[in-house]
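Hi U.,

Before I forget, here's the chain from the pilot set. I'm dumping it here mostly so it's searchable later in email.
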Amino acid sequence: MRRRTFLQAVPAAALAGRATAPGAPDRTVDTLCEMCFWRCGVRASVEGERITRLEGHPTHPLSQGRLCPRGLGGTGAIYDPDRLLFPQVRVAERGMERFKRVGWDEALDEIAARLRPILEQHGPESICGLVHGQSDSHPIHFLKALGSPNTATPSYTECRGPRDAGFILTYGQEVWSPEITDIRNTRCLTLIGYHLGENMHNSQVQEFAEALRRGAKLIVADPRFSTAAGKADYYLPVRAGTDLALLLAWIHIVLAEDWIDHAFLARYATGLAELREAVRDTTPAWAEAETGIPAAQIAETARVMAEARPAVCVHPGRHASWYGDDVQRTRAIAILNALFGSYGREGGFFLPVSAKIPPYPLPPYPKPRKPSADGKGTKYPFAEKTSAWGLVRATAEQDVYPIKAWIVSAADPFHSTPDPRLVQKAIDRLDLVVVVDVLQGEIAGYADILLPECTYLERYDDLHAPPGRETYVAVRQPVVAPLGESRPNYEIFRDLGLRMGLDAFYPWKTWEDYLDTRLQKAGYSLGQIKRELHIPTGQRTQPLAPDHRFPTPSGKIEIYSAQLAEKGFDPIPRYTRHARPEAGWFRLLNGRSPLHTFSRTINNPALSSIHRENDLWLNPAAARVLGLRHGQRVRLTNQDGATAGPVRLRVTERIHPECVYMVHGFGHRARGMRRARGQGAAVADLFTRFQIDPIMGAAGRNHNFVRVEEA
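Structure:
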C-alpha cells in the first residue's frame, strides 16, 4: 500500500477514537506517552472532559513533533469500553473470571489482611512483584519497603537483558533505552535481527529515515525480509541461530584485512591479541557453511562497514533473548563496534548524559534477609536485575524458599514469560494473587483481588530524566480525571503501604508534593515543568576524550573479558551450533507490529481496527510440500504438543524456508478483552522450551519448533 493511500485510509481522527475530526479544543495539555517505553512528548486536545486528539509535542526530544501510530491511538486506551473501572474480588475458582465489585477500602483491607500472615510465616521474600511500565516504581517501592528482594520486569530477561550485559562486560555500561546509537549521523547501519521500523521507536525511526535520506548504507541480517530489509543495500538471509557465526566471520575478515581503527584500539581497548587468536578459524568460508550466506558477501559487507568507520553502527538491538548464548552474541556486536572505533564517535555510539534530580528524602530500605529467588548474582553472576521467568520458576518449584504471593502490575506472565504451563503451576502454588491493571487480561482472570489502575492520560508518574544526547527533566501529568473508580499506582500502593505499617516510606501528602519536593531541590518547580513539559538542564554529549576511562575493571574496552574467565565463561565469544528443524518442522520466530506493543494494545479500539489479528509467515516451498495455500486458516503444534491457532496463513518469500514467523501479543482468551478475544494465535502458547543464558539468566525462546497443518 502506498503511503498516500495509507494516510487516506487511516485518518488521525480514527486513531483518536472519533468518527470525525475534532473542532477547536477547549484546552491542550502536554504530557508523556506510555504506549511503549519511549515516553515521547504528547500534546493532548481536550473538549469538555474528553480527549479528542493526541499529537507529538513540537519540542520534546523524543517526539520531535511526531507520534507513532501507537501514540496517536492512545485515546483508544482511555476510552476502551472493556476498561477496569472499579475494584473486584474473586468469587469463583481462579481462572473462571468471576468477580464481585467492592469498594477500595474493602479491597485494600483484604490485601493487607492476607499479606500479614504470609509475612509472619514466610518473610517478605515470599512476596513477589511482576511489574512493567513507568508506574512500576510504586509496587517496587512498596515491596522493597517490606524487605522483599523479588521484583522483576519482563523486559529484562525476556527482552533487553543480554545486550545490556554484553555491553556492560565490554564497555562497563549498557546502551540504555532509548539506545545511545547515533543513527542520524551514521554512514553505515547494520541491523542483526532488529526490526527497526516495525518496533516503531519514534525518534530512532525518524533518525533511521533521515540517515537513509542522506545516503547511509544499510546492512540487514535476518531470516525474515523485514520492513528494514526492504530498504537495505545488503540483505543477508542468515539461517536462524547462526548470527554469532556471521559476527565472528566479520571480526575475522576485519582483522585479517586490517580494517580496524588502530589508534582507537591502542588508546582505549585491551585484549586485541587474544581476539586475533580466538577468531583465527572463523573465516567467511567457515561461516558460509553455518549461515547460508556466501563468503564473498560476508567479506563485502565487512568492507562496507569498515569503509564507513568510525561513523558505523552495528546496532545492539533490543529484544535480544533468543538462544541462551545471547550475551556472547551481543558481546560480539560490542567488539565489532570497538574494532571500527565507533564508540563515543559521531555516527556510532554517543556518550550519554542525564540530569541529576535529587531523590525524595526517605529512610533506607530494610536489607533483605535472603537473596532473590531467581539466582541473580549467584547462579547467574552477571545479572543486573531480577528475572521475571526466574521468579515464576521459583514460585512453581518452591525449591529456593516459599513464595506465597504475587503482586502483578501492568504485566501478564502468560504472554511475557516463557511456558504458560509453568505460569499456571506457579499460580496454583500461591496463597494470594493481586493484579493491578487497566484491562482484564489473562492473568487478571486468576486474581484474588483485581484493582483498576488509571491510564497514563489520567495520572502523574515519577520524574523522567533519561540518558541521551542532552539532559532534560520531564513529567507525565494527567490530561483528564480518572474514569470510574480507577486510581494511579502511587495512590494504590501508598494506601496499601500505610495499612502495612510502612508510614515512614510514604511521608508525602500528595504525589504533587513528592514531585515538587524533588524539583525544588534541583532548582525547578512542578508548576514550571507542567507548563513546559520538559526542562533542558544544560549538559550535552561530548566526544570521547583522550584520557577517557571506561567503567570496566581495567578502565578500557575489554575485548577479552577477565570477568567472564574468572567465572568459567568464554572470555571471547565462541560459536555454538544450535539444532536445526527436522523435515516437516519449522523454527518459530516472533516479532512485533508497528501498530501494537505486544499484548498491551491488542484490545485498543483505535489500533485493533487497523491490525486486528496476526498471521503466520511460511515460505512458498514449504507451503507447496504441505499442500497449504495463502490465506487459509492453519493450526500450529510444537514439539511438546502445545497448540495455537487457528491463524491465517501468509505464504511469502520473505521468510527463511526453515522458519515460520508470527507477531507476538495476539490470541487472547480472556473474556474481559472482548475485542481481542479469539483474534489470531498466541505465540506465547508455543514457548514451552527455552534455553537459559548462564551468564545473566535470560530465557531464549527460539528453540521451539512447530508443525503447520490445515485448521
